[in-house]
Amino acid sequence: MIDISTAIDKIIEESKPIGTCEKDLMESVGYTLAENIYSNDNLPPFNKSAMDGYAIKSKDSLLCNESENICLDIIGVIKAGDYFEGKVDDKQAIKIMTGAPVPDDTDAVIQIENVELDGNKLILSEVVKKIKQ
Q1: Residue 121 C-alpha from the chain's centroid
Q2: Is this model's pTM higher than 0.70 or not?
């Protein structure tokens, strides 16, 4: 048996380019692109949530630790296809569904499974990382 780096070297040595050809999209199954394709449009044209959860300011979670939870006010819901035109202030959260636009004044989404609720309050027990700059 040979080690992986030797195997990779042998594959590269024995591989020979076979050229390129043009194929109709429906006939292209099993082929690999010869060059990258880029879209002229940035879709979706907004930062969208990849999960159901709560959009927050990540800095609000920085004081969380094993012995101390943080409580945030839930101020609304953003469903996929909706836009939130309000403002999310410090110590506030907004429920957000998968595919919905993340409000500009938030920078993190915490999964719905990772929080506790107490009425209209969101209880955080862990630090949440930023999702956008």
Answers
A1: 24
A2: no
The per-residue pLDDT string of the chain (133 residues; one tens digit each, 9 = 90 and over) reads 899 999 999 999 998 888 899 999 899 999 888 889 888 888 788 889 999 999 999 999 988 776 788 899 999 999 998 989 999 999 999 999 999 999 999 999 999 998 899 999 999 888 888 885 5
